[in-house]
Design brief:
By secondary structure, this protein is α/β, with parallel strands linked by helices. The chain has 11 helices and 13 strands. An 8-stranded parallel beta barrel has the order 3-4-7-8-9-10-12-13, surrounded by 6 helices. A 3-stranded antiparallel beta sheet has the order 5-6-11.
Length: 321
Amino acid sequence: MYDLLRSLFFHLDPELAHDLAIRYLAFSQSAPPRTPGPLARRVLGIDFPSPVGLAAGFDKGACVWPGLARLGFGFVEIGTVTPRPQPGNPRPRIFRIPHERALVNRLGFNNDGAQIVADRLARLGPSPIPIGINVGKNRDTPAARAAEDYAAAARLLAPHAAYVAVNVSSPNTPGLRDLAAAAPLTEIVQAVRASASGRPVLVKLSPDLDDRGIDEACRAALDAGAAGLIACNTTVARPISASETGGLSGAPLRPLALATFKKVAARVAGRAVLIGCGGIETAADAKAYFDAGASLVQIYTGFIYGGPATARRIESGLSGP
């Protein structure tokens, strides 16, 4: 059935299709507690009914996580959310590459702003699954004041979150990836920790970091008190033919993201929780990250191509014989 629906949706503009999916999921605004599955685990002091979560970028405004809980996700990461609302980059800004099961996006942190998202989370009430909040800086905030933006967003949103993720890895905000260098990342993590109401703070890394950049980012994040790392975000590399600028996700990202994840795992050596992300669509994809040291995994583009049953299908494949 989803193959038919996908063929219809894929005739629509990608962002329009996404908006329609959000409206559909909004009908499921009450969700029963997610029954812990055979892979349920406690990570960062948080109980995850499944280790398969949805990455930031889908539910940017905390509008539909109850509906996503019904689809079997063990956790959902909201955002990226900035302190002030911003429209993001001009449309069109999402592009499908169906024969590669890939997407390119250059959204640019389009979101309603931290106060509106916090109010929405408060109205929806307690979550049946852990909710992570992914925070970033506004486009017009100078790099020298970036830590203030991250802290401001965390201060408003952390009371509604199980954990806070720091996004210094999106390729779609000019200069954002420069914040993964030691000095700015240290300042940002320290500021977010001071504002996060005791919630664990994680840092989301780019798959385009070279070995020195990975070393620097891992060391700075952990030394500043980050409890974990998420690897990885989208890539500006082009292992396939794709003319549009922005971050590439989906199946072509998997080899690069997994290779970066393994380097991060080697450098962290058990000192922090690791969440694997990048090109995951099947149980075998997820298992590769778990085998490399992940405690949890996140999907996004695999959900777009695989449909509503993707999270449960991955969980079932991981727990099967």
